[in-house]
Write a structure and sequence with these properties.
Elements: H1 11-18, H2 24-40, E1 44-45, H3 48-55, H4 59-71, E2 76-78, E3 81-83, H5 85-136, H6 169-174, H7 181-204, E4 212-213, E5 219-220, E6 224-226, E7 231-233, H8 234-243, H9 251-274, H10 279-282, H11 289-301, E8 307-308, E9 311-312, H12 314-318, H13 324-342
Antiparallel strand pairs: 1-3, 2-3, 4-5, 5-6, 6-7, 8-9
Helix pairs in contact: 2-4, 8-9, 8-11, 9-11, 9-13
């Protein structure tokens, strides 16, 4: 039988019940007897020889002292044992509470185990139902969306003011005139197919529907051309070209030059960075990228024949003089050819 791990001892009650009733030896025997019962949870054996050995007292002294304690009502002998009634009640109360605590602990453990198993089964059932619903409610495959059309006839992510798959007049002019319209349409179809493939790859990489993935990691839409190391605002380039009076560009021409020039410059920078050059060495310093692209386009449009020692060069003299419109058309053809070659 398990004993108490601690016992309540009220000093006032102890001194009041022993100080004037027991001798020093009787009080020592009384304390040793109570401690034995608290520690073991059992009564003192009725056999005096066994009890004297358990309490480490000589038999004659044990018989004398225990007889005095029983006579004064501190200990009780009965049913073959010796005990103190109050200590015996404390042991019984302790054992009762211990049993209740053990029962509550077992019930709590069983409840937690059942709860954990129930939650696990419920979670497995929920996952199974989710999988069934996902397999039943899976939407059909949708064809890839066409590039959205912006207000005013423009488009997002495609050639400005040109419906997908239909070669425009400007495209025919760039590729050689109206007589080559059929060839231009075929090239445009191939270009659209390549753009569609890049778009599908881009969608898998987390691109927006209005964005198009070009070579060397360049991504373009109607507003910007971006790369991991830089970004060019097509809108800013277009506004700067339209405001530069010496170029004499219309709004549509500025839009075309801005988009083609920004893409060409971005592809050139991206190719150099991909080949291992440091972006700080490739990109312009102390100058926004949009200003740099606008300046590059303006220099190409305003480019004049070179002179040698104050006079026209042989190459310039051999070529016929071209008008501003012819120079614009030639530069647009060169930009379009460069873009088709890079794609």
């Amino acid at each position: 039988m398990a004993g108490l791990t601690f016992a309540k001892l009220f000093p006032g009650d102890w001194r009041g019940g022993t100080l004037y009733q027991l001798t020093v030896e009787e009080e020592g025997m009384y304390m040793r007897s109570c401690v034995y019962m608290w520690d073991t949870g059992e009564c003192i054996p009725g056999d005096d020889r066994l009890a004297s050995r358990l309490l480490n007292v000589q038999v004659q002294k044990y018989q004398k002292l225990m007889g005095a304690l029983i006579e004064k009502g501190k200990m009780t002998r009965g049913q073959g044992v010796v005990f103190n009634e109050r200590v015996l009640e404390e042991i019984s109360e302790f054992q009762r509470q211990s049993g209740h605590q053990s029962l509550r602990a077992k019930r709590g453990h069983e409840t937690r185990r059942l709860t954990a198993n129930t939650v696990k089964e419920l979670m497995e059932e929920v996952e199974r139902l989710k999988q069934e619903l996902a397999s039943k409610d899976q939407p059909p495959q949708q064809p890839p969306d066409q590039p959205p059309v912006a207000p005013g006839g423009g488009c997002l992510g495609g050639t400005p003011d040109v419906p997908p798959g239909v070669p425009s007049k400007k495209t025919n002019e760039i590729n050689g005139g109206e007589q080559n319209g059929q060839k231009s349409g075929t090239a445009e179809a191939r270009s659209l197919e390549a753009r569609s493939q890049n778009k599908e790859l881009g969608v898998g990489a987390g691109l927006q529907p209005d964005e198009e993935l070009l070579d060397h990691g360049v991504i373009v839409n109607c507003r910007t051309v971006r790369h991991a190391s830089f970004q060019i605002s097509i809108s800013a380039v277009e506004q700067q070209l339209a405001l530069q009076s010496d170029l004499g560009l219309t709004v549509d021409e500025a839009k075309t030059y801005a988009r083609a020039g920004s893409i060409a410059q971005a592809l050139a920078w991206a190719a150099e960075i991909e080949n291992g050059r440091n972006p700080g060495e490739v990109l312009p310093r102390n100058c926004p990228t949009a200003n740099f692209v606008r300046g590059s386009i303006a220099r190409q449009l305003l480019k004049k024949p070179t002179t040698v020692y104050g006079g026209p060069s042989r190459k310039a003299a051999a070529l016929p003089a071209e008008s501003v419109e012819q120079r614009k058309r030639r530069l647009m053809e060169e930009a379009a050819a460069e873009l088709r070659g890079r794609k």
